[in-house]
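Re: folding output
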Amino acid sequence: MAPRSIPPVCRIMDYGKYKYEVAKRERDSKKKAHTDRLKEIKIRPRIDDHDYSVKLRKGIDFLKKGFKLRLTLMFRGREMAHQYIGYETLSRLIEDLKEYGTLESDYRRMGRRVTCLINPHPARTKDKKTGENDAQAENGQGS
């Protein structure tokens, strides 16, 4: 406890209990660390109207809670020959989400996938403290 004093002062303790308490403090500090707060919605070029509305509703929900949103468009097989259909679907979804967030990055193409990021509008999200709690609960890190 005081190694510079004469004679040095030390404390006798249970080392296993000490290690447990240190590990517990580290776990608690990791819980409070900043999480990524990113959600992803995956769509296909020929998505049905009802499925589209469900994905749109979920995207609005995520943006209202303060999450960033990654939209991923996935192509399969012959859909690669008609990519314009997929891009139309993706641009339609972005247009419908414009009220709740702004496009952060333009389309990025990686093989058979096209992605883009949407940031939530700060005014649209709940107050900062509530929004963070919702985001942590959504990520499974709430209490």
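--- second protein (sequence, then structure) ---
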Amino acid sequence: MPATLLVVAEIADGHLTKLSAEIASLAARLASADGGHALGHVLDPAPDTAAAELAAYLPRVVSVASDAVSGQVWAPHAAAEVHRLIDEGATHVLLGVTNDGRDVAGLLCGALGWGILANASGASWDGEAIVVEATVLSGKAITRSTVDAPNAIVTVRPGAAEATELASPGSVETRAAAAAPSVPAAVVIDRVAEAGAEVSLEEAKVVIVGGRGVGGPDGFNLVDELAGLLGGVTGASRAAVDAGWIPYARQIGQTGKVVRPSLYLSLGVSGAMQHRAGMQGSENIIAVNRDPDAPIAEIADLFVLGDLFEVGPALATELRSRRDG
């Protein structure tokens, strides 16, 4: 029986996230290969803009406006909406490898008893079974996994597919919110904007990263300056975050954010396995380090052997001269 793939979309600042657009294109491709269907779901207090954006990638989008998610945790409400669409025939659920995506996937897995395929970097069919590829051991190996069942939940990493719009936009169906979720939704009593969290690392085309080598919080002044000159976003290794030099929102790696920018420039980052798991898919990797044996040299397209406090300011001076000239 042909599959019906449901994409659970996420919204940032009123717009569809880049990752959700990528997942939508992956679902559309899988549906086409299987002769099945693909649809998307958007849940937000004001979902109209994001729903229209999602319809550029999928033939059908279900848009649900819910005031409840303004003051309650989003995941239980999203899981309730997904459950309704599963009752209507959805056979597979695709979500992003994000905090919200993982939360919804966990709720669905527990409630439905479906198998979950996590951290997909690609997907295809083997007969009627969906097969997911995932990189492990910091990209040194690729696994292929499936579930022996007609249903599955898949969490997808950034860059698993290129976001490609349909020839013509799909339809948007608006609905009232479902009944209260089966799992109580926690009430949000306060929201705190963490410094540096306002810019999405996952969406950035240019990421400038500081590691233990920057020496302290003041060392990130140079990282921030280069990020500004290059129109990029500041990131950090776990060592810098653990030292308290920069907020966790900036951490890249296995326990942080996964990025795939066009340009990744690191200053004083050794490139341990944990960090490489979060950035090795970058298109162009440039690393500055005074240790010629730093592990990041193994994957860098350009490795600059030198002191970051000499190389970094020189680069900033050159960038300013080009900008001002």
